[in-house]
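Suppose you are handed a protein chain with no further information: no name, no annotation, nothing but its sequence. What can you learn? This example shows the usual starting point.
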Amino acid sequence: MKVTRLNNAEFVRVSGPDAMEFLQGQLTCDMKKLSTSISLTGAICNLKGRVIANFQIALDGKDILLRTSIGMADQIIGTLIKYAVFSKVELSKDERVLCSFGLLGSGSREFLAQHFTDLTKEMANCCSSSEGICIQLPSEHCRFELWCTDSALKKTLEEKISAKDITTQWHREDILAGIVHIGCDTSERYTPQLLNYDISGVIDFNKGCYTGQEIVARMYYRGSLKKRLYLLASDFPVEQGANLLERRDNNVSTAEVLSFCNSSLDAPNQSLLLAILNAEAVDDKAEFVMSNKPDSVLKIQSLSYT
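A reasonable first move is to predict its three-dimensional structure. Written in structure tokens, the prediction is:
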């Protein structure tokens, strides 16, 4: 089992008798599917249908917790509170979660089962106890996120943090899952479709209305998508600041890299990127290269939800 502290996380707590109904009218996911055994991924959009923030969602007793990127809690609260005037709901930065941990690999499930009696192979993807909330994340390996609320368990996990830092390996797992964490610098920049929310389950097109829904649905049902998120692999390290280039029919253009990860403990010779590519160029077998390695063509990989 490998353990890492997830320092890039903060939490919004939504409480009150109208919490579920209120969020149902604001988030892209169907809150009716949320339960003690099911955690959801969701987002909020602005009126123009652009993503303000994304998050992992779980029940905490009668309250609802949104785990988002650090620096985004205030923005989420500021956005949602404008629509909460006529709802019996309270929005606050959570202080109950002491720390968020990532657990990866063999032994993770067995360790967590000692603290979460409902953790079984048959669980959906979430369980909770007095010690926190445990969420199984998409991965070919055992991968769990633990929102720890117990000081003794926090101390135990801190003592188990891997001697070899697995932050890079955890980031790599996010990239393999097609996860881009929206932060202050990327908020309201992208449409959900550019981030693959339409095919990864972050958007539920059958749930009904939410802020920005009309534009998001129109783009999905009527528009022809020109760009979306792709996973690419490279046999050489990606350098910070290097550009991703698209070469097609003797024309060269620049594509946008949203996230990348160089070699890690489990993959020492492969780097990964998540980038927004021209879908037509991908279909036409265009070449994608880094500006500092123009002779090495990157390979497009399949994402788990495609």
